[in-house]
Amino acid sequence: MPFQIVERPGFLRLMKVAVPHYKVPSRKYFSKTEIPNLYNQVKADVLKKLAQGTWFAATTDLWTSESGGGQPYISVTIHYLTPDWQLESNCLETQFFPEDHSAQNISEFFDNMLEEWGINKKDLVCITTDNATNMIKAFEEFSEVWLGCFGHNLNLAISKALKIQRVETAVKACRHLVQGFSRSWKRRRELRQKQAALNMPQKALIHDVVTRWGSTHKMVERFLSQQQPVCATLAGERGTWHLMPKDTDITVMEQLCQLLEPLSKLTDALASETRVTLSAIKPVLDHINSDVLVEKDTDTSLTKEMKKLMREDLKNRYPDKAKRVMNMACFIDPRFKRSSLDEPEASKIETDCVQEAVKLAAQVREEPQSTSTSSSISTSTPPAASEGKGLAGLLRKISSVTRQQRGEEGQIPTTLEDSVKQEIKVYLSLPPIPAEEDPLVWWKGHASELPHLARVARKLLCIPATSVPSERVFSASGHIVSPQRALLKPDKVNMLTFLHFNLK
User: Fold this and answer.
1) DSSP secondary-structure letter at 145?
2) Buried b (16+ CB within 10 A) or exposed e, 213-244
3) Cβ atoms within 10 Å, residue 502
4) Is 124 exposed, middle or buried, given 0-12, 13-18 or 19+ CB atoms closer than 10 A?
5) What is the Cα–Cα distance from 362 to 462, expressed in whole angstroms?
6) Residue 382, pLDDT above cutoff 50
7) Residue 170, CB half-sphere, CA atoms under 13 Å: how many?
8) Global pTM value
9) Which of 54, 163, 473, 481 could form a Cys-Cys staple with 75, CB 3.0–4.6 A?
10) Sign of the dihedral defined by the CA atoms of residues 397, 399, 405, 408, in that order
11) What are phi and psi of 502, to 5 degrees?
């Protein structure tokens, strides 16, 4: 609600009845005092939470408001794991961005934002954005990984199929039909009457939006499901017969809808901010390429052409650096492990995981506070000398000796690399968990048993597969920068958006 609501006569009358002795503060009090104070309090809380994170992943995107003169904004969200293996995400900024949207300006803003929030760039393991040229260029020299949004990649692949002449003609015919209904109250009224007469659900037609993933599929699907009442409505008005799609267009739409149906739910499944998503990209892409988009004998020539274009486009969407991280995340996820990997690929990914675990262990050893944990990452001290004291140390030693006697470990590892390889053997010997279970819960229970691999999991499993978190920020900001609040200043937009996502 806008600040000025506290000065409206209706609200003041309500408050006078509800709490007669309470004096409602002015609009300026909320705008200049209460909201800034609340923002500072919540920001301090978020900074404390960020201090718990070891590694961070981010999403960012640009947006232009529809109200307030079309002002440009840039948003940033941060994602990390707490020491208790909880996946956290916070909206950090929704800043006014009047400068040119060049790669250099975006990169400079991002660096300044990290400095303001006290996040070391070395601790930022990934940035997920859309595939805009300026975004790619802004983060192409990022020391870790730039990841293209899975939803955007899938949407771009689908766009290739939509550009086929026959498909484009059919989609335009459907869009023209929807526009004809959206501009006429009479037709919408007649449509509802026809739906009632046919005992069909009274659902309105859907207009697609170019920037909204899956909206074209929803538009076509809704028309096909309501084709009978729609055609009956048009048949009763001679001047609207030109809106009726041709039979050939309807046939194309049916083929398109059948192809896109299994793809429509994939983006939503990988858009979560509370669940691990990066590790699922490889299994999902394998499912798309080997199942959904594989050409079948029963497919029409048009369906085969659409599948081929989409399959070829998806192959080139992820660079090798991103694929390496995606594959390691899949391997380190106890839901998948090696199930989505062939043998040569699995061996390479195991090697990558070993190298990553060794690198992370070396970083921990170099930190001044790591003296208390140096025994767990020593490259030369035998385990027997570093088991620790007390019951836990004794049980760990007994467990190690027992495994050696059973031939499960072989020789005692003498190097850090051997220790990591030994952990991988133990990790692979454990049964995978069901797909619906949370891999973070599993790692919480096995982190002490597999400390080196746990570091890799903690680093990679916080990375979001899509830039949807930033898109959600803009959806909320769109309600804040409403026509009734067109004069809201950018700093207030940032504060209100920040509070919307972080005030709990």
Assistant:
1) E
2) bbebbbbbbbbbebeebbbbbbeeeeebeebb
3) 17
4) buried
5) 21
6) no
7) 26
8) 0.84
9) 473
10) negative
11) -115, -10
* Residue 409 structure tokens: 């470990």
Q: How far apart are CA 391 and CA 385, in angstroms?
A: 15
**Exposed e or buried b per residue across 476-496, where buried means at least 16 C-beta atoms within 10 angstroms of its C-beta:** bbeebbeeebeebebebbbbb
Is the pLDDT reported for residue 332 higher than 50?
A: yes
Question: CA separation (Å) from 273 to 86, 138, 461?
Answer: 11, 24, 12
> What does the pLDDT look like over 48-59, one tens digit per residue?
999 999 999 999
**Tell me: the pLDDT tens digits for 491-502?**
999 999 999 999
DSSP-derived pairing of the beta strands 56-64 and 87-96: unpaired
Angle at the Cα of 393 from the Cα atoms of 445 and 400, rounded to 5 degrees:
75
Q: DSSP letter string over 264-316?
A: TTHHHHT--SSS--GGGHHHHHHHIIIIISS--TTS-HHHHHHHHHHHHHHHT
Q: For residues 432 and 334, is the Cβ–Cβ distance under 8 A?
A: yes
Tokens of 13: 């009358």
Residue type at 429 in one-letter notation: S
Q: How far apart are CA 285 and CA 273, in angstroms?
A: 20
State the amino acid at position 314 in one-letter form.
Answer: L
Return d(Cα 341, Cα 344) in angstroms, integer: 8
| pLDDT per position as a tens digit, 406-447 | 444 445 556 888 999 999 999 999 999 998 899 999 999 999
Task: With CA atoms as reference, report the closest residue to 227 among 259, 210, 203, 263.
Answer: 203
Q: How many residues does the chain have?
A: 504
How many other CB atoms are there within 10 angstroms of residue 71's CB atom? 18
The one-letter code for the residue type at 476 is: A
DSSP helix/strand/coil, 498: helix
Rounded to the nearest 10 degrees, the angle between the axes of helix 150-162 and helix 165-182 is: 100
Determine the straight-line distance between the first and last CA of the chain, rounded to whole angstroms.
18
Q: Are strands 124-129 and 145-148 parallel, antiparallel or unpaired?
A: parallel
CA distance 330 to 340: 8
Angle at which helices 451-460 and 439-446 cross, to 10°: 150
Block residue for tokens 């023209």: 176
Q: How far is CA 413 from CA 224, 409, 416, 487, in A?
A: 64, 9, 8, 66
- Distance CA(397)–CA(384), nearest Å, equals 7
Is the distance from CB of 360 to CB of 455 less than 8 angstroms? Answer: yes
CA distance 492 to 35: 8
DSSP string of 75-132?
EEEEEEE-TT--EEEEEEEEEE--S---HHHHHHHHHHHHHHTT--GGGEEEEEE---
